Amino acid sequence: MSKTFLITGANRGIGLEMTRQAAMNGDQVIACARNIKEATDLVTLNKENEAITLISLDVTDENSMKQIAAEIQCKIDILVCNAGVLNGYGGLEDDAHHSQAIHAVLMTNIAGIFFTARSFLPHLVKKNSKSEEQSGAYGKIAIISSIMGSQKRAGSNAPIYRASKAAATNLARSLAIELAPRSIAVGAYHPGWVRTDMGGPSADVSPQESAAGLLARFDKLNIASTGIYESYSGEKLPF
Ligand SMILES: NC(=O)c1ccc[n+]([C@@H]2O[C@H](COP(=O)([O-])OP(=O)(O)OC[C@H]3O[C@@H](n4cnc5c(N)ncnc54)[C@H](OP(=O)(O)O)[C@@H]3O)[C@@H](O)[C@H]2O)c1
């Protein structure tokens, strides 16, 4: 049965590829980008595919997100919190760790997930019909975190980004527990080291492979596995 995705940060990288593949699989995608005018690849993809709806959405702006959520009529099966920012791979003394950059990383990678989940939560709870409620067909939340946030894989670079991704995984765990009574499953995912603007050209996984793996993992997520932290290839990850 066709599903409806909402994907943040869908204009490039892993988000764009997840959008492309989900639409190719026959699913509906609400593809969000904070600057639609500059999202040329996404706009082109949208022209080729009626299953994709474009929405202008900045995950750090909760007020506008709530407004957008109020205007959307459809239910969401899989809410993908993908938007993310990395302020370089430097260490403690790197100039890239100035307060504005740190603010952007924390607001996007942590608060952005929280705002997205809170804004679109009403669309995940399927209360339109009694039969849907009884069938357990509830939406789920996929949070794109990173292995760089794992305490067991601590490293000497990008400390602010690492901390933000540790928090993203932690947020997934908290939301999993809070939303379990409402049958909404939540998972945290590491997409691999992916050849995107963020991952760089030397990364070992293509966006296509990462997106395909992630979509397959989201399909498997259910209330029995809620709170999971795993990679795009299904490897269970240490917190
Ligand atoms: N690539 C990797 O190796 C890797 C590894 C582990 C985890 N991840 C995670 O995977 C996710 C996707 O990464 P990627 O590699 O595809 O990165 P990317 O190519 O740099 O794309 C990041 C996306 O996030 C969007 N974004 C940033 N701030 C936003 C905001 N405030 N509101 C809405 N959208 C915003 C960007 O939009 P703009 O174009 O407007 O900036 C862009 O669409 C991120 O959460 C990242 O941390 C990536």
Can you walk through the features of this model?
The structure is a single chain. With 239 residues, the chain is of the alpha/beta class. The protein is 41% helix and 14% strand. The protein is built from seven helices and seven strands; from the N terminus they run βαβαβαβααβαβαβ. A seven-stranded parallel beta sheet has the order 3-2-1-4-5-6-7, sandwiched between helices. Strand 6, helix 7 (207-220) and strand 7 (229-231) form a beta-alpha-beta unit. The model is unreliable at 132-136 (pLDDT under 50). The site of NADP nicotinamide-adenine-dinucleotide phosphate has 29 residues, from helix 1 and helix 4.
Write the layout of secondary structure elements.
Blueprint: E1 4-7, H1 13-24, E2 28-33, H2 40-48, E3 52-56, H3 62-71, E4 78-81, H4 99-124, H5 130-135, E5 140-144, H6 159-179, E6 185-190, H7 207-220, E7 229-231
Parallel strand pairs: 1-2, 1-4, 2-3, 4-5, 5-6, 6-7
Helix pairs in contact: 1-7, 3-4, 4-6
Bound molecules: NADP nicotinamide-adenine-dinucleotide phosphate (NAP).
The site of NADP nicotinamide-adenine-dinucleotide phosphate (NAP) has 29 residues, from helix 1 and helix 4.
